Target: Probable transcriptional regulatory protein JF888_10380
Amino acid sequence: MSGHSKWAGIKHKKAIVDAKRSQTFTRVTREVTIAAREGGPDPTSNFRLRLAVQKAREANMPADKISGAIDRGAGAGKGDALDEVRYEGYGPAGVAVMVDAVTDNRNRTAPSIRHIFAKNGGNLAEANSVGWMFSRKGVLSLDAGKLDPDEVGLAAIEAGAEDIKVEGSSVEITTEPNSLEPVRSAVEALGVRIEEAEITMQPGQTVPVPEEQVPQMLRLLEALEEDDDVQAVYANFDVPAEVLERVSASV
Model:
């Protein structure tokens, strides 16, 4: 798996900590609200909302909270107006970083993001300065368990997957966004449990980061992700998995 994909897996494991649960609830609530606002309140016809609701359920969000978020997005509930904003910049070693945020106050969010970049060896750049390096993709991460990972990958390819990466029993499947759901269904039909399914931004090219700069780069990414207004962070770094595992334990 790519360095960034491996880091996503590490983050997923660390996110189980209860202290971060309220932040997770906030993020999935915002995503459900915005998805309902953009595409309507019916998950069967609104793929973004369907994916957001699935994530909310995986985070163990109560059903009434999910319904309330959908109602707010559809205009039936009250709440602050939320805007989606994307920030772009560079981190240590010239790593391209994209930050997706949801905010009710851009005058609060922009200075906060700028400060985080500056404090951690990076700099905020102009809009579209790094966005061209990334493509919107669907990504599924799973453990094949007792099944042959190659057979799982073949089933995914037949269902429309673009690319398969296998590392031991771990499989990462890349699709076009509109193929994520049929590929997911095909893989689940084999009895495989999906660990993560998301629409993300994947880099077309990566930047190798010297090991001595990896801690600073990870601190930048974690600081961005911990900002209350940030929904997701993407970066195009390339770091060996064993280095990420070792360094992340001390960051």
Observations:
- The radius of gyration is 18 Å.
